[in-house]
Specification:
single chain, alpha/beta, four-stranded parallel β-sheet, 4 strands, 44% helix, 13% strand
């Protein structure tokens, strides 16, 4: 962890409170989907889910229980083996995942699971359209671990734009250069929008 920060050990100090919090949060997420289902401007056939850490636990739970979730990403999902955590652990739900596609990413230096446990969990997911990505990291999202490109290149999506900015080219010329590609992307991405 950075800056000498270590997260509080409360899941182990108060496992029943932790379990209750995870279950309550999952319940609230389902209520949110219930609400979205009442809105005419929401296409409920396009609900996706992304969960990191505790959110990864909930992602496994909800994709096994709620068919409204069509695709999911679970990252850095804890795998605790103590019996008091069993009702909320991802291996309890993994074999029942029913979404169309599932991405699981892990950090190979994470202390909340072993790589062996992570691979075993992934193998329990019964769907065919799934993927497993291993990052060289601990229990942090992988964005910061891109070492080949500069952060601005990741945000903008192209090192060429940064180079043009560094050469002090007019912003209008740079912006004009990506308009055709942006329009094409807008047309393609419209099929994936949640809102109509």
């Amino acid at each position: 962890y950075e800056n000498n920060y270590f997260p509080p050990p409360w899941p182990y100090q108060y496992p029943h409170k932790a379990r209750h919090m995870i279950i309550s949060t999952a319940t609230e997420y389902r209520r949110a989907m219930d609400y979205l289902s009442t809105r005419e401007d929401v296409d409920t056939n396009r609900i996706r889910m992304l969960g990191l850490s505790m959110g990864g636990l909930i992602t496994f739970e909800l994709t096994s229980l709620d068919p409204r979730i069509k695709s999911a990403i679970a990252g850095l999902t804890p795998i605790w083996k103590e019996p008091e955590f069993q009702p909320v652990m991802p291996y309890t739900f993994a074999s029942s995942v029913q979404c169309n596609s599932f991405l699981m990413f892990v950090g190979n230096k994470d202390r909340v699971y072993t790589m062996k446990d992570a691979h075993q969990l992934y193998d329990l997911i019964p769907i065919t359209q799934k993927d497993f990505i291993e990052y060289e990291t601990g229990h942090q999202p992988p964005y910061e671990y891109e070492t080949r490109r500069m952060p601005i290149d990741l945000i903008i999506g192209d090192g060429g734009i940064r180079n043009r900015l560094e050469r002090l080219e007019p912003i209008e010329d740079i912006a004009e250069s990506w308009q055709a590609e942006l329009h094409k992307f807008s047309e393609i991405s419209r099929t994936f929008h949640l809102y109509k």
